[in-house]
Amino acid sequence: MVGISNELIELPEGWEWITLEEIASHVSGVAFKSGDFTNYGIQVIRLGNVYKGELNLSREPVFLPENFLSSNFIVKPGDIVISQTGTRFKRDYGYFVLIPNDAPKLFLNQRLLAITCHPLINSKYIVLASKFKVYQDYFFSQETGGVNQGNVGVAGVMKGPVPLAPINEQKRIVAKIEELNDRTQKAKEALDSIPQLCDRFRQSVLAAAFRGDLTADWREENLDVEPASILLEKLKKRSPQLENDLSEYDLSDIPDSWIWINVESIGDVKGGKRLPKGESLVDENTGYPYIKAGNLKNGTVILSEIQFIPKHIQPLIKNYTVASGDVYITIVGACIGDAGIIPTELDGANLTENAAKICNLFVINNEYLSLWLRSSLCQEIIKSKILSAAQGKLALTRIKTLPIPLPPIQEQLEIISRVRDLVNFTVRMTQCYISMNPKLDQLNQSILAKAFRGELVPQDPDDEPASVLLERIRAERDKLNNSKAKSDRTSKRKRNTVEGQGVLPGFE
């Protein structure tokens, strides 16, 4: 048959390889102008409404008057709509979407193809067959278009190979796959909840850590440890003018051996520097790395995204560098308040004006400080101190006044150790989630492969073979075509007779 390769897998007895053009009619969508759209009438189904194989008519709905187009371009319940165009790199098209029975009338937009299956064909079965690797491989082998955008024409859709089962087996396959898909969907929903659960768990761990709950047992076993008030005395000796004013904050209770202290008391807060006007960063390693706000993620610096300062610029901004171990905090942008530690590899790097560093730390561990700054408790305080503007900004003076719950040094180290162990657990869970997601997709493809090898549901030898079903469809189509041809010939003879009698066409 046309479009069918000789290398296809062998089908069970009673099945047939077919193309969609043998069992379905099709119509291409129309290129409407934005000025045609109204807020009433018949909704237009567009590419965005069938994204990722899900029908979503609430996504940017547009309408056309009911008499705007012929009814030939109206999609009916039971029709299948196929996306023909998308991003080649992502392969985000080639989706088949079945129009449900309760759907309204829909005009078909360009870059979509609608097919109507013969009544003897189960449309849900065809949607499932379109996801089978054999059909998908053919579909994308017909891809044309530019570097980024792909497109598959009508032939690429209609001539792709589809394994056709007997009609009763089609129904059994659909029912079984829907049952299994319900299970995999529940598994996917459970998996997709893991990142959020891990994040909530991390925040719960940090909250417990900075309330003192996480190390309550440790304190009971280490009663001889000097309280943090001794650290405060050391700070005052080091800086006699120290002002630990926290009166503007409504601070929660902490263990008796802890103290509340502000950032300015335990380190220096300094800002970064932007490049001079008209200058740009370069990818070439000049020896002068520049840390942008976008490089500051997940408590560290993303080294793979680092760019560099041209050598002639470095002398102009050389005083705005960081040292390994400094604590950074972003002060502008969507991730404002993100904090972490400068790694060894970026010792001496220049820092963006969109972040600040907390350096020259005393009586506090840098990892403890960065964990506190990233905790939801501190983040709430930070958000309340962001200046109201078109783009929020955390001023350096505000950073200096931020409060810190300060335990003894030994307890800081214990907190870091316990938090690290618990957070590593969430990292492993996240890695498990990342590895399992593709396996679910593979499972769905395995289910399809088993279905279209005839192995998913029991086969009934009494089922009418697909070949007989095809013969019935062809016979009906031939009869319809012959009837249409006869009708066309009759109409033509009538027109000729009328014209021969001298009657104007259209007035007969």
* The CATH superfamily title of the domain at 226-407: DNA methylase specificity domains
The CATH architecture name of the domain at 226-407 reads Alpha-Beta Complex
- Main beta sheet, described? 4 strands, antiparallel
Helix count equals 15
Secondary structure class reads: alpha+beta
Low-pLDDT segments: 498-508
Helix content: 25-40%
Number of strands: 23
**Which outline best applies?**
elongated
Radius of gyration: 34 Å
Give the N-terminus to C-terminus distance in angstroms. 46 Å
Please report which band the strand proportion falls in: under 5%, 5-15%, 15-25%, 25-35%, 35-45% or over 45%. Answer: 15-25%
CATH names the topology of the domain at 226-407 as Adenine-n6-DNA-methyltransferase TaqI, Chain A, domain 2
CATH level 1 class label of the domain at 226-407: Alpha Beta
For this structure, the quaternary state is single chain
Indicate the mean pLDDT.
88
Strand numbers in spatial order across the main sheet:
2-10-6-8
Q: Which helices and strands occur, and which strands form pairs?
A:
Elements: E1 16-19, H1 20-23, E2 24-28, E3 42-45, E4 63-64, E5 74-75, E6 80-83, E7 85-87, E8 96-98, E9 106-108, E10 112-117, H2 123-130, H3 133-141, E11 149-151, H4 154-158, E12 161-164, H5 167-192, H6 194-211, H7 216-221, H8 228-238, E13 259-262, H9 263-266, E14 268-271, E15 289-291, E16 296-297, E17 300-301, E18 307-308, H10 314-317, E19 327-330, E20 339-341, E21 350-351, E22 355-359, H11 366-374, H12 376-385, H13 396-401, E23 403-406, H14 409-451, H15 466-500
Parallel strand pairs: 3-9, 15-21
Antiparallel strand pairs: 1-12, 2-10, 3-4, 5-9, 6-8, 6-10, 7-11, 13-23, 14-22, 15-18, 16-17, 19-20, 19-22
